[in-house]
Amino acid sequence: MAGDGSPYLPGNGAYAAVRFKLSSMGTSFFQPTQMPPPPPPGPGAAFGPMLRHFRKARQWSQMQLALMANASSRHLSFLESGRAQPSREMVLRLAEVLRVTLRDQNQLLQSAGFAAVFPETPLGTDPLGPHRRALELILTQQEPYPGLVADANWNIRMRNEPLARMARSLIPPENFAAAGAAAGNAVKYLFDPLLWRPYIVNWELTARQMMQRLRDEGAHELMADLLRYPGVPSGLATPGPGDAALRDPAMTIRLVKGNLRIHYFSILSTFGLPQDITLQELRIKLFFPADPETEALFRQWAEAPAGASR
């Protein structure tokens, strides 16, 4: 039940006051919060430790979370210690206030003994047909510039032909085979020495900025994979100011191979208010030329016969 005695429904508008309280604390209610992964969902996983994990990831005290969730700090303390069990409505209320992902909301519900409520529908199935067609339209409209759709681990789920042309222009065919699964991951393209990494002029700055994003997303397993590549400094995994003087208005990747020169930045977008895990975890990455030379190159490739970009 909400504080006024009405049933709690996620996002039903009864928590406009919560949005105001969040904004007064410098936090946007509408901005999704990416946090480190919760404790493993094995036999030892319980609701209390998971709730504490998400609260601390927000850097909130129990009193702050209690205020946001319209609950008492004493009850919240009991929930975290395991001395009290939450109702289903309380789990959903806390999850919404903490802005955890749909996947983590399911995990919180299951840890408290309730059924998961958010589906994870395969992208290639009929229920997501309209959404898949929307992604195809975006990628087609993006041409002659490259674009891709990736999942939460940055595995490429969809891409357009300009991205394939760009990859072929830089990477020898034998390297694709040797790289294996890494050739299907948008982030590993930047770190694998068999892929784009040897051609990125500003690689260390690019790698540090990408690690910062992955850290914000809580993608620790992917970060660990990247650190295993030869020559990747372990210090990239720790927060650091970097060289602010070298930063562009948006991260610009500069690729050079012989006479080939590609400078690009990207725009990321997501589905609005998704209620399916698959859709929430998809991100659309669109590449744009950062200078006239790259603009001309992309258009030249578009006019050339298929496979002639090498």
What's the gist of this structure?
The chain has 310 residues and is an alpha+beta fold. It is built from 14 helices and five strands.
List the helices and strands and how they pair.
Layout: H1 16-24, H2 47-58, H3 62-69, H4 73-81, H5 88-98, H6 102-111, H7 129-142, E1 147-150, E2 156-159, H8 161-170, H9 173-179, H10 188-191, H11 203-217, H12 220-227, E3 253-257, E4 260-269, H13 277-281, E5 283-289, H14 292-303
Helix pairs in contact: 2-4, 3-4, 5-6
Question: What percentage of residues falls in helices of 4 or more residues?
Answer: 40-55%
Number of helices: 14
- Count all strands and give the number: 5
Rg calculated over all Cα atoms: 22 Å
SS-derived structural category: alpha+beta
Uncertain spans: 1-20, 23-34, 37-43
CATH topology of the largest domain: Beta-Lactamase
Straight-line distance between termini: 63 Å
- The H/E string reads HHHHHHHEEHHHHHEEHEH
CATH architecture title of the largest domain:
2-Layer Sandwich
Largest sheet: 5 strands, antiparallel
- Give the count of structural domains: 2
User: Quick check: average pLDDT?
Assistant: 86
Strand content: 5-15%
How are the strands ordered across the major sheet? Answer: 2-1-5-4-3
CATH class placement of the largest domain:
Alpha Beta
Shape by Cα distribution: elongated
